[in-house]
Structure formats: structure tokens, C-alpha cells
Amino acid sequence: MIYKDLKIFSQNVWKNSLLINTILEVNSSFDIIFIQELSWSSICSIPSSSNCEGDTLVGMVNHPNWLTFVRPNTTKSDYPRVVVYINIRLSFFQFSIHKDIINHRHILLASFFNNRKLFWLMNIYSDASHSTLKHLKDAKVNIRNLLIMMGNFNIRDSLWDPSFLHHLSISDDLIIITDSFNLSLSVPTNQIPTRYADNINDSNSTIDLVFLQCNSPALNNHSIHPE
């Protein structure tokens, strides 16, 4: 079973295209890469029937060794903030994304087939307004065999951050959502921050989280790589 051996890498890149390219280059041993806050930039000008100078073609980082899965966008304000890269060695598992089920630029729901069964993965970016979690809570989507939901949640809470002494109501919403997907919070093998403060007046924090299928004998642990 492929999912028993899946190695998934996840990182918020803060709109840094060079960092995405580096991640794709050096992490070839991983099967799947989740990226949050990806960068969209101008690639070139293309011919236009309405603009003599041409229209600007906007794109994102691609790599020959990785299949790129990203939600289609229509306007600049609708550019997706999450992307999933699948190692080409897994291409025969028929990965696909599902805007038809969850249509939100901060959420990417992907599926793949394994032994004729359908499995799901979810990449999340939740900004300071928590609009992503509110969308998931209101959508009440029923997804069976969701193996993992991970990403940047921008929530500090004593439930997963030992250095933070408070519990927030938005965390309860997150737990309600993950419970509905039959997921549980994964405790990292090394308890270190996932975000390091830019100055000495702020504290380091844990805001990148991993939720795994409950009682799964396959996907059952994760570790945090120091920045």
C-alpha cells in the first residue's frame, strides 16, 4: 500500500519563489510537497486582441521532477495560496484536485487511487482572519478516507504550543472540523517551534500543524525541520 510509505513535506514559503525551487530540488526523496503562501509572478507578455502591448502571463514555480496541482484562478484577487507537488514517480496513482468539492483559494483537496480505493489529502493555509476554517465549518463536507490535513493554521494555542498558555475559541472550531474528518492532531517527534520570530520582542510559535487519520497504522508520525 503506497500510503503506508508516503513521505510528505510541508512549508510556508512566504511568497519566495527561490525557496520553492530549492525545496523541489533538494527534497527528491519525498513523495508529496505541500506549499503555503506560494508566489505568483509575471513570466512574460502574450499577444492580446485588446492590448497592443500584450497581456501579462502570470505563473508559479514548476519543476520537471514534480507534477504541479493547483486550483485554477480567474482574477488576481483569486490567486491560490496553496499548491501540491507530486513526485513524478507517483504519477500512475492518478492524483487529481477537487475544486468541485471545496472551492477556496486557501484549501487544496487532492485525491489518489490505491488498490482501487480513493484516498484524500488536504493542504491548508489559514490567514489571521481564519476565513479558511470558517469556510470548512460552514461547508460541512463529508470526505471519507482523508489521510492527512496539514499546513499553516496561524493559531497559537496551548493544545499544541507548550510556550503559549492560552486556549482560543477558534481552536475549538478547528478540532470540530478535524473530528468531522476523523482526524486527530499529530504530535511531532521533536517539539520545536514551526515559526521563528523576526525580532527579540516576539516569541517563537507553533502554527503549522498536522492532522492524521485516527488510528491509522500507516501515517502515524511527523517531525519538524528547524529553519
| Separation of the first and last Cα atoms | 32 Å
CATH class, anyone? Alpha Beta
Can you count the helices? 3
Mean pLDDT: 87
Quaternary organization:
single chain
Overall domain count: 1
Output the CATH topology: Deoxyribonuclease I, Chain A
How does the major sheet shape up?
A: 6 strands, mixed
The secondary-structure class comes to: alpha+beta
Q: How do the helices and strands follow one another from N- to C-terminus?
A: EHEEEEEEEEHEHEE
β-strand percent reads 25-35%
Shape: globular
Helix content percent band:
10-25%
Any idea what the CATH architecture is? 4-Layer Sandwich
* E-strand count: 12
CATH homologous superfamily (4th level) name: Endonuclease/exonuclease/phosphatase
Task: Tell me what you see in this structure.
The protein is an alpha+beta fold. It has a single domain, classed as Deoxyribonuclease I, Chain A. The chain is about 15% helix and about 30% strand. It is built from 3 helices and 12 strands. The strands form 3 sheets. Strands 7-8-9-10-12-11 form a 6-stranded mixed beta sheet, with helices on one face. The chain has a 4-stranded mixed beta sheet with strand order 1-2-6-5, with no helix packed on it. A two-stranded antiparallel sheet has the order 3-4. The longest helix is centred in the C-terminal third of the chain and has 12 residues. The two termini are about 30 Å apart.
